[in-house]
Each structure stands twice: as structure tokens, then as C-alpha cells.
Amino acid sequence: xDVEEVDRETLYEQVWKEPMTKVAERYGVSSSYLxxxxxxxGVPKPExxxxxxxxxxxxVHVPKLPAPRPEDDLYWTTSGYxxxxxxxxxxxxxKHSGTRPKSKKPAEIPSIHPLIRNVRELFLxxxxxxxxxxxxxxxxxxxIITSEKSLDRALEIANTIFLEFYRRSWAMKLEAYxxxxxxxxxxxxxxxxxxxxxxxxxxxxxxxxxxVGTVAIGLTLxxxxxxxxxxxxxxxxxxxxxLSKKQVASHWTSRVDYPSGRFRLRAYSPYNGTTWxxxxxxxxxxxxxxxxxxxAVELTKATSEIAEQYAAASDKARKARQEREEQLERMRxxxxxRLRAEALAKSTEALESLISEWGKAKAMxxxxxxxxxxxxxxPEHDKAxxxxxxxxxxxxxxxxxxxxxxxxWQTPEERYEARKKSKSRF
Length: 426
Known about the structure:
Elements: E1 5-7, H1 8-15, H2 20-27, H3 31-41, H4 50-55, E2 75-77, H5 120-124, E3 126-127, E4 135-136, E5 144-145, H6 151-167, E6 171-174, E7 208-212, E8 215-233, E9 236-239, H7 245-249, E10 253-268, E11 277-282, H8 288-376, H9 380-396, H10 402-408, H11 412-423
Parallel strand pairs: 5-8
Antiparallel strand pairs: 1-2, 3-4, 6-7, 7-8, 8-9, 8-10, 10-11
Helix pairs in contact: 2-3, 6-8, 8-9, 8-11
């Protein structure tokens, strides 16, 4: 099946025109998959029993297609990989007035944010990393890099900050995998350092994305590491501080980066080609609610810079794409000229060969005609022998079939089209 691109408007018209099963069948997917596509695009779909009501002659309500939210996809492709720039709502600086969503009332705010609810056990189902950090087996989790010892603290921090965003009616989601967003790698060292090939942190399958108005902002909560004297006992690295002097004396020790229990929140621009990042260190005794409000205020201010970077990156990508298209066009023209020149040369060569064969055929025809005359005038006692010889010579030197050669000969245009067609297969 060829890859097909479908926009929100088209999909909306289709799912309200006929049952989802028929629409899904046309695209080669299941109805449940198409239902998720509708959700990702923010397209309302008929409720259960909708088509039965229509069949019974009852009136049904058909909602209008709402304007796309920042977190909504704009297109869906049957391949699952739409062009990033075509599937992204253009980010604009967050405005403090106008039609922005109102803050939620305390009664409307849950005690646990949806992205934090029921994730603790999933974080604990992790591979052993040997560096103290959890590496969950599940990919689709909120973006938190932490140790088992500090997991509860990490979830508390994330929940408090996320609920502040929830109160402001800012959407948050684990962004579906696509090419429009990217997540920077994580360094557990607050001040960075040389590359470490032995450290590989868990990376979520989907980045945690916050939408401040139309601007997408990626979030990662990171537990900082600190250089710690460690000893390897029974295959496990343990801090020297928790060991007895006897244990320390009988084992080799080394200094490694180990989870410290201190955290920092990293916010970043997920748009390809942008570089904006901001971090907030979190003290152990810090008022998390106050920190959450501070982060929210600073993120609203950052939307202007992110929007500017996005515009610049988009313009750069557009120019690069245009350059690439122009280069491909130049290459196409050069290849076409090469193929045409090749076709002309080969066609001319074949025609010259035909002319040569024609001359050869005429020469042979003349030779055997004259020889035939000589044989006919030969003495009778030699004639029978000479006639046999002549026939054998004719058989051996069969004249080329120039008419067949002419039929097989191709014009330059025919050769060009045939060569072009053969190359298009690869």
C-alpha cells in the first residue's frame, strides 16, 4: 500500500461519513488504531451506536471540528512518519491576556498528576545498571532519572511541579514518537564533564512535553550525581560511607559518580534545530510549591525565545530543503543530459554498424553474383563441382539480415526512455 497523508479536516469528514471500520479498512489499519489516530489529531469521532441511530431514522449530533490544540498532530500518514514541520503547530510567545485557558479551581485539581499516577511500581521494575540509577523496563514513562532510594522524592517533586502546570490548564503529555521533537541526552553531573562510555541512562520512548500556549517545552527531572568513594562487594558497588573499616580495608575502592539525592529540573526546547535549555537546582528543604510557581513564570517568559529559535530553525531548514531540492534538480538534469548523450552515442554507433553491415551485404551480393556468372561460363566437366562449391560458400558467408537489424535499431529517444525506465526501478 502506498504511503498516504491525511489531514485533520479530511479524517473528520471521513469518520462522520461512514463507520470507522470501513474507513480503517481503506487505510489498511484496525478501527482501534484509527481511533487513536483521531485522538492524536484532536478529531472527534462518533460514539457507539451512532450509525444504528441513523439507520433507525433518529437525529444525531455531529460536533464541529475544533481548532487544533498545540499538542494535536495536524497530519497522519499511513507510514506513521509525517514531515516534522508539517505536523507542528507554529509556536508563538505566550500571552497573558486574550483567550488563554483559565486557571483551574482547587477542587478541579487532582492530588496526583495523571503522568505520575501509578508509575512508582513501573520505575521499580528496572534493569540493574550498576551505577545506582534506575533503568525501567518500560519506555513510556514520565522523564525522570533517579535512583531507587530517591524515587519517592523524585515523584513528589515532579507531581508538585506538574500540578502547578495543571492548575494553569497547560497540557502535558508523553509525546508520541515522531521526528518533530528531539530530547537532549542526560548528564547526571551538574557541571558536566568528559564523556563517559560506561554510563548509559534510561531514556524514555516518548519525551515528556509541556505546552505553554502553543509552545512545546520538554521536561526532565534529574537526580544529580557526585563523586563518591565506592567499594565492590559481592558484585555490588556500595558507598564506603556505609561500610565498616574492615570491609573497606579488604576491598578495592574507586571513585565513581553516584546518585546524591539532590535534584534539578531541566526544561528544553524539543524543536529540531533549537538549543534553548534552562535548569533549576532543587534543594532538599525547598518549598516545592513556590518553586513550581517560579518555574511556571520563567517558562512563560521563555516562550518568546523558543518561538524565535523555532522561526530561525524553520527558516534554516526551509533554505536547506530548498538547496537540497535545487541540488537534486541539478543532478536530475545532469543525469538526464548524460542519459541522452549516452543514448545518442549508442544509437549512432548502432546506425553506423547497420551501414557497415549493409555495405558488407552489398559487397557479398556483388561478389557472389559475379562468381555465379563465372561458374555458369565454366567448362561442363567443372561446372557441377563449382556449383557445389558456390553453394557451400554462400552458406558459410551468409549475408547479414539488414532489414532485421533496422527493425531492432533504436532511435536516441527510444534508448533514452528505456534507460530511464530501467533506472527508475532502483
